[in-house]
Each structure stands twice: as C-alpha cells, then as structure tokens.
Amino acid sequence: MPHLVTERLVLRPVDDTDVDRILEYRNLPEVKHWLLSTDVDPERFRASWRRAADDPNDHSVAVTLDGTVIGTVSFDVVDGMGQPGMPPRTEALLGYVFDPAYGGRGYATEAVTAMVAHAFDQLGIRRITAGCFADNLASVRILEKLGMRREQHGVGDSWHAELGWVDGYTYAILAHEWHERSARM
Question: Which of these, 149, 138, 152, lies nearest to 176 by C-alpha position?
C-alpha cells in the first residue's frame, strides 16, 4: 500500500512500532464503547496487524498527523455475494478507529475520504460498505459526509458489549456515485 497524503495527514501501513500507540486510544472507555471487540490481547492485536501487512486484500492504514498516529482505517477487499460470473475482489469493507483527543477537527473524515478515493480510483473497487451502531452519531456523520447511503437499519441486530442488543446501520456507496459526487464538488 503506498502512502496516501492529504492536506494534513499521511496514511501509511501500520508497523510494529505503531501498535502500542494504537492500543493507547483503542482501549479508552469512550472508544471501546463503540467497538465490536472491546478487549484485546496486545500480542494477538500486534499479530493481526502483522498478518494484515502481508495480506494483499487488506489495505488498512495508520493515520498520522505530524508523525503521530491518531487513528486507523481498516479496508478489506472482498468477493461479493458469490453469484456465478461475478468479478472477484470488487467490493470492500470499511472501518475506522480514531483517538478522541483529535476528534471534532475533521481528521477522520479526511482520512476515510482519502481511503475511499484511493479504493475507487486505484484499486478498482466497485462498492464499499461500512457498518456502525445506530447510536454512534460521530460515525454516522462521517459516513453520511462521504455520501454513503444508509441501506439498512437493523433493529436489535448488533450485539453491544455494554448495552446488549442494539440497532445497527449499514452504509454503502458505489464507484459511479462517488465519481458523480466528486465531480459536483
């Protein structure tokens, strides 16, 4: 994965030296509250990032501001629903986790926008989907700012570690929608 450079950020592959920093903010109560997997073993977490670096379908990145890791964007290229003749690896799953100390300044939106643009323009992705808890308003705002369409409101479909069964949203955007939107901006 090449480094992606935005106006304020650099998105680059995660290396071993980043993992402790990522765990610092990932383990904050206000961050864990919105994650599916709330507690992680540091060594297993480190090993998963190492595997990601070697996986040609995993384009996940560390997001840095002036050399400091402030978040991650996970991006996995996947096969679609499996209909006969469907081109492989034209869809992707998007996620992100950011340090709340850097919240409210548009960094997450800037980073996720760069990743989506890269996916459509360089990776040939046709469709990107992302999910979040319905009550995670910060995540909802990011996905909607990107122009992603809410395709599903799953009532009681998401297990939340603290709250039990809660509502979840699924968002998506197609390459042609992204390009049409980008041309208008």
Answer: 149
DSSP conformation class of 86: P
Nearest in space to 123 (alpha carbons), one of 168, 65, 78: 78
Sequence-ordered list of residues with C-beta below 8 angstroms from that of 110, at least 6 positions apart, any chain: 6, 7, 8, 9
* Confidence (pTM): 0.90
**How many Å apart are CA 63 and CA 98, to the nearest integer?**
9
| 3-state SS, residue 96 | strand
- 34-78: per-residue pLDDT in tens? 876 666 777 888 888 888 878 888 889 999 999 999 999 999 888
Could you give the 3-state DSSP secondary structure of residue 87? coil
Which token pair is 106? 């548009």
| Cα gap 81→152, rounded to integer Å | 17
* Total domain count, the chain: 1
Q: Are 178 and 116 in contact (CB under 8 A)?
A: yes
Domain CATH code at residue 57: 3.40.630.30
Cα–Cα distance for residue pair 181/102, rounded to 1 Å: 27
Contact 174, 127 (CB under 8 A): yes
CA 57 to chain centre: 14
Domain range for 162 is: 4-184
Predicted pLDDT of residue 43: 82
Decide if pLDDT at 143 tops 90. Answer: yes
